[in-house]
């Protein structure tokens, strides 16, 4: 069954490769891509060892603790375990042979009051997403993280970066990409309502119709608010994509010359480190904080001083009071939230009475006032 799917994928990939890319063929190519996306999903969901659904495959059984979870992904022996030990103090066996780490090893650290869980993972190899090694388990666990550290050996070919990206991409993980700004809503009837708010350089109504037909969707609202690619459109139709921030951690820089270092520094989203010598880990943490969009909000119980030791961590550049409340307890918004007193840079007056839609800033202090407490 999976052999048949793989053969069909090969056939479609060949067709895609030999078709000229121009305006006339765009619709057809879109259709080929949609067919490919569908088949690849079937392959992932149907393969051995996978739990099916939710992107296919089951991750390692590591309970999530703390505010933020960061996963280490990379080829064998790039130094993931050495890095985990250097950052968290949790001993994860490191050695000069490949596949030293065979399961997920969590470690924790506190940074600027946030409790960060770091998860060292087994090395992955090419073909991981199709079930090679523990790849699918690794990538499934990676999907549960707030952010990924793509660990690379700075001495090795940068081809490895591409290979890792392809493996993650094949599992529905989109690195350092925003979800496309479009509305896609399936309907019972009424045909396709296609609207371009922004002119499209890749997608046309015809391509859109063809792709949706492949998914047996005949009626839908499609509103395009940004200029997107055919692949991005298919992502939205497929659903279940995971958009994650990622940093490329270029390890073992102690082995490089200055000239080699200069070249590596051109890679976007990179941080150079030496896990072994603990070089540049400060910058790594600084960047992790930035990439995870971490914001600290201090809670202030009525009549008490704010709790500056245990900030509530939100992962958003502009979180609202409502998001803050939901992070503490779901029931707050449902049961009697009236307003919040807010101190800090997000407000003019100290304190200021704010509604649920008010946008908070890093290090604001918030006191929630509930109806029942009056
Ligand atoms: N020179 C140098 N060697 C390093 C550095 N970090 C790790 N190593 C070495 O690289 C080898 C592999 O390190 P590990 O931490 O086991 O690598 P890993 O990525 O966890 O490997 P697997 O678990 O097998 O996938 C070990 O011999 C480490 O001592 C570094 O910054 N510089
Ligand atoms: K190793
Ligand atoms: Mg390891």
UniProtKB/TrEMBL annotation:
Keywords: GTP-binding, Nucleotide-binding. InterPro entries: Beta-grasp_dom_sf, DRG, G_OBG, GTP-bd, GTP-binding_2, GTP1-OBG_CS, P-loop_NTPase, Small_GTP-bd. Pfam families: MMR_HSR1 (PF01926), MMR_HSR1_Xtn (PF16897), TGS (PF02824). Residues 293-370 form the TGS domain. GO terms for molecular function: GTP binding; GTPase activity. Residues 68-293 form the OBG-type G domain. Gene3D superfamilies: 3.10.20.30, 6.10.140.1070. CDD domains: DRG, TGS_DRG1. NCBIfam families: small_GTP. This is DRG1, developmenally regulated GTPase 1. The lineage of its organism: Eukaryota, Sar, Stramenopiles, Ochrophyta, PX clade.
């Amino acid at each position: 069954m999976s052999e048949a799917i793989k053969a069909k994928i090969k056939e479609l990939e060949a067709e895609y490769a030999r078709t000229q890319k121009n305006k006339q063929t765009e619709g057809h190519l879109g259709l080929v891509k949609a067919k490919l996306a569908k088949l690849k999903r079937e392959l992932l969901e149907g393969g051995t060892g996978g739990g099916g659904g939710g992107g296919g495959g089951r991750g390692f059984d590591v309970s999530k603790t703390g505010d933020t979870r960061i996963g280490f992904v990379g080829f064998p022996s790039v130094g993931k375990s050495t890095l985990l030990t250097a950052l968290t103090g949790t001993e994860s066996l490191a050695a000069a042979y490949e596949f030293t780490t065979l399961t997920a090893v969590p470690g924790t650290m506190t940074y600027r009051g946030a409790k960060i869980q770091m998860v060292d993972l087994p090395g992955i190899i090419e073909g991981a997403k199709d079930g090679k090694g523990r790849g699918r388990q690794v990538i499934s666990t990676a999907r549960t993280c707030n952010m990924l550290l793509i660990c690379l050996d700075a001495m090795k070919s940068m081809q490895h970066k591409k290979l890792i990206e392809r493996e993650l991409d094949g599992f529905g993980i989109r690195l350092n990409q925003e979800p496309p700004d479009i509305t896609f809503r399936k309907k019972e009837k009424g045909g396709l309502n296609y609207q371009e708010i922004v002119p499209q350089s890749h997608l046309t109504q015809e391509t859109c119709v063809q792709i949706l037909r492949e998914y047996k969707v005949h009626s839908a609202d499609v509103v395009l608010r940004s200029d997107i690619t055919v692949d991005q459109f298919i992502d939205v139709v497929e659903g279940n994509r995971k958009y994650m921030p990622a940093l490329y951690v270029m390890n073992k820089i102690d082995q490089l010359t200055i000239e080699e270092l200069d070249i590596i520094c051109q890679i976007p989203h990179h941080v150079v480190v030496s896990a072994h010598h603990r070089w540049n880990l400060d910058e790594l943490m600084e960047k992790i904080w930035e990439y995870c969009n971490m914001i600290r909000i201090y809670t202030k119980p009525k009549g008490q001083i704010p709790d500056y030791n245990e900030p509530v961590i939100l992962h958003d550049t502009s979180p609202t009071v409502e998001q803050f409340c939901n992070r503490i307890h779901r029931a707050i918004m449902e049961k009697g939230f009236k307003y919040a007193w807010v101190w800090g840079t997000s407000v003019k007056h100290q304190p200021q009475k704010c509604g649920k839609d008010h946008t908070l800033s890093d290090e604001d202090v918030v006191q929630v006032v509930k109806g029942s407490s009056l």
